[in-house]
Amino acid sequence: MNFSKTLIIWYLQNKRDLPWRKTDKPYRIWLSEIMLQQTRVAQGTPYFLSFITAFPTVFDLAQADEEQVLKLWQGLGYYSRARNLHKTAQFVANELSGIFPDNYNDLLKLKGVGEYTAAAIASFSFNEAVPVVDGNVFRVLSRYFDIETDISLASAKKEFAALAFELMPKDNPAIFNQAIMEFGALQCVPKSPDCTICVFNSSCAALQKKKVDQLPVKSKKLKVRNRYFNYLVVKDEEAKTILQKRTAKGIWHNLYEFPLLESDGEVEFDYVSEQSKNHFFKNDTIISIEDWTQKSIIHKLSHQHLHIKFWKINLKGTVENGIDPITLKTFPFPIVIHKFIENEARL
To answer: Which of 33, 147, 230, 321 makes a 20 to 30 Å CA pair with 293?
Structure first.
């Protein structure tokens, strides 16, 4: 029995019951694929269900406010995905009359849709014979065929895509793509896969050569930058606070946060007190400053580690355009601030 047949039989016996597998509608396939970029299925599933409840069609998503979209996305991270999702929905609704492109090349032209996502939509919705290549596919194929190509190289994707295309049954590319991704997610996992129960344990080259833990080869290592955020959580005499919107390009674009004091490293009370009085608030309006979190919260992003502390600033009188505790919870926040508001601040 060949690789593809064995893989598909395994898939039909072991596949997870996922909501986006019950449809071939491109809107829902597109939505799920954008959400699952850099996101585990278990984490992404409730967000997918929330989105299709709030926005059953691409027209509903197109007509929504960006802040509503960002609020529903809150916690999924990589917020540029949500902003691109919204812009693409508007383009499809307004320029394409709500009809998604029906082929790989035209799907690639949509904002936020890369090669992998275009291939997924094209094969799942339109049965186009185009292979998906993601981390799961790199891992499964590199191990089974003992391919030592460095997957961080740009040329690697073409090599693996060509191999996947050769293996793919052209009359049913969707099931092959689903199967190889599912196999990588459930069986041929990155660390310590249970090869004793694998359907390929008699034919996998990496297993025979005892190289499973060495493949795929990936030499490029991401440099991580450390940043230090001190959030000044204001509370005036009416229990109102202050927010600001992150409008600059970079992390958390268009999300909200408390006034931010970014420093070169961990800072103590005296530094925060001095900066607050000199640059944020008038000295005579500050009643007290407290270190709310004591120890920094380390929030890890793919390319940055944020060391975050929250400082409580009690002010005399009332702040201009102050936000009350109920309204505060309606804004879209980075998940670390959302959790602080829910669990710590009790604003």
So the answer is: 321
Pairing relationship of beta strands 225-235 and 304-315 according to DSSP bridges: parallel
Hey, which CATH number is domain 225-345, 3.30.530.20, 3.90.79.10, 3.40.50.300, 3.40.50.720? 3.90.79.10
Question: For the residues of 83-102, what is the DSSP string, one character each?
Answer: HHHHHHHHHHHHHSTT---S
| pTM beyond 0.85, yes or no | yes
Q: How far apart are CA 207 and CA 190, in angstroms?
A: 14
DSSP for 1-28? --HHHHHHHHHHHH----GGGG---HHH
- The answer to whether 33 is a known catalytic residue is yes
- As annotated, the residues of the chain forming the CATH 3.90.79.10 domain(s) are 225-345
| Selection from 138, 293, 283, 117 nearest residue 218 by Cα | 138
224: three-class secondary structure by DSSP: coil
Q: Which is catalytic among the residues 33, 148, 237, 342?
A: 33
Question: Which amino acid, one-letter code, is at 84?
Answer: N
Dihedral-angle region of residue 164 (phi above 0 means left; psi in -120 to 50 means alpha; beta otherwise): alpha
Q: Alpha-carbon Rg of the chain, whole angstroms?
A: 24
Distance between CA atoms of residues 108 and 122, nearest Å: 10
